[in-house]
Amino acid sequence: MCVAFLGRRRIYIRLIFLAALCGGIFARPAAAQSVVRATNARAAIWRTQTSVAATVAARQAASLSLARGGIVSAVMFSSGQMVTAGQVLVQLADGPEMAQMALDGAKLEQAQRQLARTRKLIGISGASQSALEQAEAQVDEAQAQMALDKADIGQLQMTAPFAGRLGIRTLDPGDYVQAGQVIVSLTGVGPLRVLFAVPQTESGGLSVGEPFTIAAPVGAGQAVPAKGEITALGPAIAPATDARDVEGVVVGDASGLLPGMVGVVHLATGAPMPALAVPQTALNDSTLGPFVYLLSPAGPGQYAVSPVYVTIYGDAGGQSLISTSGLKAGDKIVAIGGFKLSAGAVVSLQSP
After folding, report:
1. pLDDT over 90 at 17, yes or no
2. What is the CATH number of the domain that holds 122?
3. Which among 7, 77, 156, 352 is least buried, having the fewest CB atoms inside 10 angstroms?
4. DSSP assignments along 189-220, one per residue
5. What's the Cα-to-Cα distance from 105 to each of 28, 92, 114, 157, 194, rounded to whole Å?
6. Tens digits of per-residue pLDDT, 42-93?
7. Across the chain, what does the average pLDDT equal?
8. Which range of residues forms the domain containing residue 171?
């Protein structure tokens, strides 16, 4: 009987050993703690953003024409040419006018000689004071006539009023042009102007020197962005548009913009308000809205996460600007890895 008892005891011990062995083999490992990358919320300033239509304009632009009509004798420019201020571009036939100026020039010389003789005679009492005054008046009249002749001849020339680039040439010698007929366009060199209007409800925070960006479509799905700054503000709200006129200038590279383009200006308006700058990857979505995970110490090298719901104002400098409710500058938040977390989870931080 003792032998049977000992046999049963050995079997029981073996079963316990096998159970412990199997438990060791099939036991589930403990869940690994999540490792995340952290960052600190940074203080920032946010202003309401708006977008309005804008027109790009040259610093100077003119449609050139002649004050008088006539036959073209010379065209002294080519399409797209750069010209300087005062450069002659078109000359009309001026034969009669030149002959008239030559005749009036001879009359001026005669009047000047007569004046010189009269002055000599005055010196020896050979002429009266009235004769001298008459001779002086004749010189003045002849000089005025010469000035008139030069002005008439000047109207037969078209000159560039400022330096710039010409448009397309459509005129040749022998063509007849009428007074005021547009011959070619001239676009001045220098920074491009940007003209737009901001609605009254959004114009309160505008000021000279404020930056903006402008994008003008140049092809299917393409746009050319450029930076600018406000240079002038209209003194009143236009009743027709209920908006304030604004003028700006493009700063930096504007190689993709041309005068006459229509684009969209993006600028900040309204009063500045405090915000926090966080990486875009720190934001998480939920049915209750966007949130970030706030990190609170939970032991050596460990942090507990808790969601803080925020309002997203916009983006600036590659980061998202959010409301300050529930957070403050310097708070440590999850920058990357929040998608795998839940409220109350304990995490460790990835080494920099």
Report:
1. no
2. 1.10.287
3. 352
4. -SPPEEEEEEEGGG-TT--TT-EEEEEEEEET
5. 116, 22, 14, 21, 51
6. 999 888 888 999 999 999 999 999 999 999 999 999 999 999 999 999 999 9
7. 86
8. 61-92+158-188
Contact 109/205 with Cβ under 8 angstroms?
Answer: no
* Structure-token pair, residue 130: 């009235």
Tally of structural domains, the chain: 4
* Sequence-distant (≥ 6) Cβ neighbours of residue 275 within 8 angstroms: 43, 44, 45, 46, 313, 321, 322, 323, 324
**CATH code at 212?**
2.40.30.170
Question: For residue 130, how many other CB atoms are within 10 A of its CB?
Answer: 8
Q: What distance in Å separates the CA atoms of residue 155 and residue 333, rounded to the nearest whole number?
A: 75
Report the DSSP pairing between strands 157-159 and 34-40. unpaired
Asked if residue 308 belongs to a domain, the reply is yes
Structure confidence at residue 14 (pLDDT): 52
For 18, counting Cβ atoms within 10 Å of its Cβ (0-12 exposed, 13-18 middle, 19+ buried), the class is exposed
